[in-house]
Write a structure and sequence with these properties.
Elements (H helix, E strand, L loop, with lengths): L4 E5 L3 H15 L6 E6 L47 H5 L9 H14 L6 E3 L1 E9 L4 E8 L4 E7 L1 E4 L6 E2 L13 E4 L13 E5 L3 H12 L4 E6 L12 E5 L1 E5 L2 E4 L4 E3 L2 E4 L3 E2 L22 E2 L3 E2 L5 E3 L9 H15 L8 H16 L4 H16 L9 H17 L33 H4 L14
Parallel strand pairs: 1-2, 1-7, 2-3, 7-20, 9-16, 10-11, 10-16, 11-12
Antiparallel strand pairs: 4-5, 5-6, 8-17, 13-14, 14-15, 18-19
């Protein structure tokens, strides 16, 4: 009898979580299926794998990453910590709660290298098309090896879509923007604040990317930052130099006009207008169709495509929780694929989906959203042997983080939190975030200088 074959599309945090789940089972002595993970980039990490490229990569494929220089975690690291690989284990000392991208990427890589997961991954390989044969119950996946310019097909019993949903920009049109003489780009192509020093910036959008890019550009010397929202403002107390106005109505040359009757000239426009769920390698009947929300419809437990549960989606939710949520999903998916977890019937699955979707639709505040996703995580943890962690305590951290941002959007990253995995209290960073212009791992991990006694040299 041939061994079960599992195909994974994407080696970002979700795809890597799935590989880690299988490797954990293997270390426990279980016989695991044959697994192949396909990653179109040259290395793993998904969004955390920074590239200077925009538009297309060196093989002519659309650039996947939306990561930029100077990005620091915008949530406490204690809220995303792997329960089977702590920050203490990786860094051998306490670090602060809001590390920059290179530090988080190093943490992700440390866990993967410990598990020797690269052996499962084919890099520079992109999924082109999928067919499912109901008679053989197998997926045929058409793939392109970009390095060799070779197209081939492989068959799998299960297919896992872990390709993310922050790569295809949503690009709205505003009358006159085609004549704007300055820079116009989407957040997907933003690679750092350096080019916007001393410029008057207009950011269209009111979610995390608008908030973070706006504050980063302010920090790195933009002359002013205006955030333009469609429905609701971000609503924090902004410092002088950052403001929120209602949506742009149109442009005339370099002047933008707003719904509140105001108008202003700008040097650059950054569209922080979100992303589309795009799965061009899937036929219509297998494609997840949703907008960005905490519980997409038609996937049971947020994982299994209800019409065909052998098709598995990971990390497709809007996210407060990230790495540990992907782990919880991956452990449940693994147990299903290994026959250790049985799914209920289609109608029962539909009822469960309806329950979560209806509750999601009733949420009215960020605090309710945190509770909702916390409950979702707890639901998943009950279904597998993923190492448990105190989800309620993590939820309270998220709520404190929300309060800290409301209190001061410029200093919330200076706060510290306690790990629910090890109990370790985060260290204070040696430099306040607003004063720290170097996001390198070396700079971040540099020991804090001790103050010399009065009258003695430092």
């Amino acid at each position: 009898m041939s061994k079960t074959r599992i195909g994974i599309i994407g080696a970002g945090p979700s795809g890597l979580a799935q590989l880690r789940a299988f490797e954990a089972a293997k270390k426990e002595g279980h016989d695991i299926p044959e697994i192949v993970c396909f990653e179109k980039q040259e290395s793993w990490g998904g969004m955390w794998n920074y590239t200077w490229r925009t538009g297309v990569g060196k093989h002519g494929e659309p650039v996947h990453g939306s990561m930029y220089k100077y990005l620091w975690s915008n949530g406490p690291k204690e809220c995303l910590e792997f329960s089977d690989y702590s920050f203490d284990e990786h860094f051998k000392k306490p670090i602060s709660s809001f590390p920059p991208r290179p530090v988080l990427f190093d943490y992700i890589q440390g866990r993967m290298e410990k598990s020797d997961l690269k052996k499962y991954i084919r890099f520079n390989t992109v999924a082109r098309w999928t067919d499912y044969d109901p008679d053989t119950k197998k997926f045929s996946l058409v793939l392109d090896d970009l390095s060799q310019d070779r197209t081939y097909t492989e068959e799998f019993d299960y297919l896992i879509v872990a390709s993310g949903h922050f790569s295809t920009p949503n690009m709205p049109y505003f009358e006159g923007i085609e004549n704007f003489p300055g820079t116009v780009l989407h957040a997907h192509d933003f690679r750092g604040a350096d080019q916007f020093k001393d410029q008057k910036l207009l950011l269209i959008g009111s979610s995390y990317s608008a908030e973070d890019i706006g504050v980063q550009c302010y920090k790195h010397g933009a002359a002013s930052v205006t955030l333009s929202y469609r429905n609701n403002p971000i609503g924090v107390e902004w410092p002088e130099g950052i403001r929120e106005w209602p949506l742009v109505t149109h442009f005339e040359d370099n002047k933008a006009f707003f719904k509140n009757g105001a108008s202003e000239e700008f040097d650059a426009v950054i569209l922080c207008t979100g992303y589309q769920y795009k799965f061009p390698f899937l036929p219509d009947a297998l494609r997840l169709k949703t907008s960005n929300n905490l519980y997409p419809d038609n996937i049971y437990k947020g994982i299994f495509f209800n019409a065909l549960p052998q098709l598995i989606y990971l990390g497709m939710q809007d996210q407060y929780y990230t790495f540990n949520m992907f782990d919880a999903q991956a452990w449940v998916a693994r147990d299903y694929m290994m026959g250790r977890y049985q799914l209920p019937g289609k109608e029962e699955r539909r009822k469960d989906i309806d329950h979560w979707v209806e509750r999601n639709n009733s949420l009215e505040s960020a605090y309710e959203e945190v509770d909702f996703q916390s409950d979702y995580i707890k639901d998943l943890l009950e279904l597998s042997d993923y190492p448990p962690f105190n989800v309620d305590e993590v939820g309270e951290m998220f709520k404190q983080w929300l309060r800290d941002k409301e209190e001061n959007i410029l200093t919330y990253r200076d706060k510290t939190f306690r790990s629910v995995v090890t109990g370790t209290m985060a260290a204070e960073h040696h430099t306040p975030w607003m004063d720290e212009l170097d996001d390198s791992k070396e700079r971040f991990l540099k020991p804090k200088r001790k103050q010399a006694p009065v009258g003695q040299p430092v």
